[in-house]
Amino acid sequence: MKAILFLCLALLSPLSAAELRISTDFDGGSATIDAIDSAKREIQIRPGGNPARGWACWWFVRIDGLGDGENATLVLRGSERSTRNNGQDTGKPLSQDWAMPIAAAVSDDGKTWRQTGLGTRETDRISYPLEGTGGPLWVAWGPPFTPRETEALIDEAAKARPDLVHPFTLAETREGRPVRALQIIAEGGPEKKPAIWIHARQHAWESGSSWVARGLVEWLLGDSAEAKRLREQAEVIVVPIMDVDRVVTGDGGKEADPHDHNRDWFETPHYPEVAAAQARMKAYVAEGRLAVVLDLHNPAPRDLRPFFFVGPPELLSETARANRERFLDLAASHLAGPPALDPKARVTGANYHPLWRRISGQWVNDHGNEHTLAACLETSWNTRHSTTDGYRTVGRQLGEALAAYLAPPAP
User: Fold this and answer.
1) Which letter, b or e, does each residue of 161-199 get, where b requires 16 or more Cβ atoms within 10 Å of its Cβ?
2) Whether pTM exceeds 0.70
3) How are beta strands 71-77 and 125-131 bridged, if at all?
4) pLDDT computed for residue 361 by the predictor
5) Contact 216, 198 (CB under 8 A)
6) What CA–CA distance (Å, rounded) separates 298 from 142?
7) How far apart are the C-alpha atoms of 142 and 71, rounded to whole Å?
8) Percent above pLDDT 70 for the chain
9) Could you tell me where the DSSP H helices lie in 52-92?
10) CA dihedral 381, 35, 251, 154 (to 10 degrees)
11) What does DSSP say about strands 60-64 and 137-140: parallel, antiparallel, or unpaired?
12) Which three-class secondary structure state does DSSP give residue 91?
C-alpha cells in the first residue's frame, strides 16, 4: 500500500509543479532568457540591455509560479555581446564578473529588498538559490532604484519636512523623461549659504549609489545636531538618478554611445540633464558659494571597500588641495562601514580614460570656485553589506562627514 501511495505521489508531483514564468516588462527590467525548466525549477538568464546603451551587466527579472517555500535556482551567465570601452567597440564581451554579485537582490513586492544566499560560482556561471512565497518574486543584480523610488523618496521627504524640502525637475531627458531632484534648505543661517551638490547614477547600472543618496537625504532630514547644523548652514541639492533613460530601459549606461553621462561634462553636453546641472553649478560659482560636489558611483567587482576618486592634485589651487585633504581625512574617520572606507583615494588622469577631462569631478575642478571640493565616492556592490540598509548607512556616514567638513571652526 505504501509503495502504491509513493508511486502515485511521484506521478502527481511533476504535474503539480506550476509553470515558471519570467518577465522584464517594467521599469529597469532587463534580461536575456536562455532557458526555463519548470520541472527542475531552474531559470537560466544573461544580462539584458543594448551594448550601445552601456555595459551589459545589469539584470532584473520577475518570476511567477513559485509556491510558498518552494526552492528554485537562477543560473546566470555573462553577456556574449561585444562591449564598448574607452569610447570604442572592443570586439569582445564584458568580463562576466561585472554581472555576478556574490548574492543577488530579491524581493516579494518589488520594493523591499534582501539578499539571496551566496551564489555558487562555476567557470562561466553563477547559481543563486531562490525560495518562493506563493506570489511574484523579483530578482536583480542589486537592489533596483528607478524613478518610482525617486518619487517615493521625494514624496516622503516633502511630507515629513515641507519646511525644508523643495522638489524640482532638473531637466527632461533626450527621451522625454523628467530628472527629479530635491533642494534641502532651512531658513536662517548665512545669507549666501554654501551649496552642496550630490548626484548619483551617471552610470545607470550602479543602483547602489542611488540608495547611498537616499541614506544621506534621510539623515539630513533627521533630528541629530549635526544634520540640523548642516541644513541650517548649507543648501543641499540631491539628484538620485542622472541617467534616467537607461535606468528605465534596463541598460548599463556606462560607455554608452556616443559616451556616458560621466564623460559628458564639457562645453556642449549631449545630455540635457548634464547641461542643466552645469548651469546650476555655474550660478553657484558666480555667487562664490559652490562648496562641495559629490558624484556617487559603484566600482569594480573586486573593490570590496568604498573609496574616493579625485582629480590630479597639481591642477588644484592650494586652497582646493587643502580642502580636499581635510575632507578625505574626515571621511576616513566617519565612513566606518561596514565595510569601512579605504582611506587612500585614487587619482584620475590621462591614464584613466581618454575623456578624463570631461568627467564631472574634473569639470568642477576646472570651473568651480577656488575653495570648491569635488570627489567621486565609489561604494562597494559585491559584499554582504551591499544592501539597501548598507548603502543607506554609507549615505548617513557621508552626511556626517560633510557636516564635520562645513562645521564652523572652534573658537
Assistant:
1) eeebbbeeebbebeeebbbbbbebbbeeeeeebbbbbbb
2) yes
3) antiparallel
4) 97
5) yes
6) 11
7) 21
8) 96
9) none
10) -70
11) antiparallel
12) strand
CA distance 45 to 98: 15
Contacts (Cβ under 8 Å, ≥6 apart) of 241: 145, 146, 147, 150, 179, 180, 200, 201, 210, 247
Amino acid at position 9, single letter: L
Distances (CA, A) of 7 to 3, 4, 10, 13, 307: 6, 5, 5, 10, 59
Looking at residue 191, its pLDDT comes to 82
Helix residue spans in 161-267 (DSSP H): 208-220, 225-233, 244-249
CATH class of 147-406: alpha beta
With cell 512565497, the residue in question is 133
Give pLDDT, residue 17: 74
Q: Which three cell numbers stand for residue 82?
A: 561585444
Contacts of 144 (CB under 8 A, 6+ apart): 28, 60, 105, 113, 138, 207
What pLDDT is attached to residue 16?
56
Return the domain boundaries, the chain.
Answer: 20-140, 147-406
Percentages helix, strand, coil for the chain (3-state, rounded to 5) are: 30, 25, 45
Residue 400 has pLDDT above 50, yes or no: yes
The phi, psi pair for 307, rounded to 5°, reads -155, 165
**20-140 belongs to which CATH class?**
mainly beta
Among 4-13, 36-45, 89-98, 318-327, the range scoring the smallest mean pLDDT is 4-13
- The answer to whether residues 402 and 230 touch, using CB atoms and an 8 Å cutoff, is yes
List pLDDT tens digits, range 6-63: 333 344 444 457 999 999 999 999 999 999 999 999 999 999 999 999 999 999 999 9
Give per-residue pLDDT as tens, 183-229: 999 988 788 999 999 999 999 999 999 999 999 999 999 999 999 99
Are residues 376 and 361 in contact, defined by beta-carbon separation less than 8 angstroms?
yes
Residue percentage of the chain with pLDDT more than 90: 92
- Distances in Å between the Cα of 23 and the Cα atoms of 204, 276, 346 are 20, 35, 40
Q: What is the pLDDT of residue 14?
A: 44
Omega prior to 343 cis, within 30 of 0: no
